[in-house]
Amino acid sequence: MGMFDWFGRRARPERAILGCLSRCQAVVEFGPDGVIRSANERFLAALGCRAEAVLGLPHARFIQNDDEERLWRGVGRGEPMTGTFRAVGPSGQVAWLHGSYLPLGDGHGGVSSVMMYAVDVTAEHLRSLDLAQRLADTGRGQAVVEFSLDGMLLSANDTFLELMGYRSDELLGRHHSMFVDEAESRSDAYITFWRRLRSGLHDAALYRRLGRNGKVVWLQATYNPVFDAHGRPVKIVKYAIAIDADAANRSGDDLDEVMDLGDHPDTLSMDAAIEAALAARRRQGVAGGSD
What we know:
Layout: H1 3-8, H2 12-24, E1 26-30, E2 36-39, H3 41-47, E3 63-64, H4 68-76, E4 81-88, E5 94-105, E6 111-120, H5 122-136, E7 143-147, E8 153-156, H6 158-164, H7 168-171, H8 182-185, H9 188-198, E9 203-210, E10 216-227, E11 233-243, H10 245-250, H11 252-255, H12 267-284
Antiparallel strand pairs: 1-2, 1-6, 3-4, 4-5, 5-6, 7-8, 7-11, 9-10, 10-11
């Protein structure tokens, strides 16, 4: 059964919702064995090909996943899977897709097909890498920190250590939550923040962090997932600039629209955040830090 045949069997409200998703997202239908049954124009455009170049071929031919067996074992049990994936078209065109695999039941406890709904985040992914490089080049005052996907601190440069008031041996292996209030570390927003990073999405904003003895440090920063050769996030690198309280307040007007990129993760806003931070740094002569 093709994707649009499946749509036809659903109730009218569901057809309207799914039809809207098909118009604004890349949509692919797979069989339980991972073979492509149908694909919409957005998916084909992302891969730079026609339908006949992908129909009847396996998922692994086009979408790279570090553990293909685990993916299909999970959806075979009816479990949705979400992540950011590197896709390569027949001509070699590369796209980065952030989406979900949704298994559809057959009415007898099995899976009849698997729908993938995805957003093409290729431009955002490439710009994130470019912005990370730009931040890394802003000078030796830049604080750089590496975290594991579960938030454990892997490394920190001297600028970060001086800014937060710690030695390296006091931080390595500690969780990122040590830099935030206890209430914030337990909040839904904080949990969502790390879930987004683990899924391969970056985050950029002005952050309030705590150093030794509760010292408040304001940081303009970006958290950038680092991917392996298969497009799977392996760690998070943070680049940050420290801003004193007065400069943070004076920069408030510039930063109002980019304070929560979890809801508005566009790279133009991230550019604006970085430029505002750099402007504040130039005005104040304040060297920077990270989380």
